[in-house]
């Protein structure tokens, strides 16, 4: 289920659900969407969707994700003081 080529530092649930399949409206808050993949309730579905898709580079430590791996790399360096190799 989890792609082996997506070798990040920790396990992130990688899902095969489509954008429309991944979310159901939250019962507790009308503004929120519940992710079927990780059960998190989020406001920004699009942003959260991309945090599960391996073709984008998602930060494993915060909700940030970037289309370019080097942008993520500098994010990790600046925000989390980590140097990662991909
Ligand atoms: Zn999720
Ligand atoms: Zn981050």
What is the topological layout?
Elements: H1 19-22, E1 23-25, E2 33-35, E3 41-42, H2 45-52, E4 57-58, E5 65-66, H3 69-80
Antiparallel strand pairs: 1-2, 2-3, 4-5
The structure holds zinc ion (2 copies).
Give a short overview.
This protein has three helices and five strands, in the order αβββαββα.
Folded structure, characterized:
The chain is α+β, with helices and mostly antiparallel strands. It folds into two domains: 22-52, no CATH class; 56-86. 28% of the residues lie in helices and 14% in strands. The protein contains three helices and five strands. The chain has helices at residues 19-22, 45-52, 69-80; strands at residues 23-25, 33-35, 41-42, 57-58, 65-66. The strands form two sheets. Strands 1-2-3 form a three-stranded antiparallel sheet. Strands 4-5 form a two-stranded antiparallel ribbon. The two termini are 20 Å apart. The mean pLDDT is 79. The structure holds zinc ion (2 copies). One zinc ion is lined by residues 35, 37-38, 40, 48, 52.
Ligand list: zinc ion
Shape: elongated
Number of self-contained structural domains: 2
Sheet with the most strands, sense and barrel status: 3 strands, antiparallel
Share of helix, binned: 25-40%
Count helical runs: 3
Order of strands across the main sheet: 1-2-3
Radius of gyration: 14 Å
Q: Give the SSE order as H and E letters.
A: HEEEHEEH
Q: What ranges have pLDDT less than 50 throughout 5 or more consecutive residues?
A: none
Beta-strand portion reads: 5-15%
Task: Please give the alpha-carbon distance between the first and last residues.
Answer: 20 Å
Mean pLDDT: 79
Number of beta-strand segments:
5
The secondary structure category is alpha+beta
């Amino acid at each position: 289920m989890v792609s082996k080529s997506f070798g990040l530092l920790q396990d992130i649930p990688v899902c095969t659900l489509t954008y429309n399949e991944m979310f159901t409206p939250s019962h507790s808050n009308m503004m929120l969407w519940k992710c079927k993949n990780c059960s998190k309730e989020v406001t920004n579905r699009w942003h959260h969707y991309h945090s599960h898709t391996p073709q984008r580079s998602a930060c494993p430590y915060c909700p940030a994700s970037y289309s370019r791996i080097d942008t993520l790399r500098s994010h990790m360096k600046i925000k989390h003081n980590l140097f990662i190799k991909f």
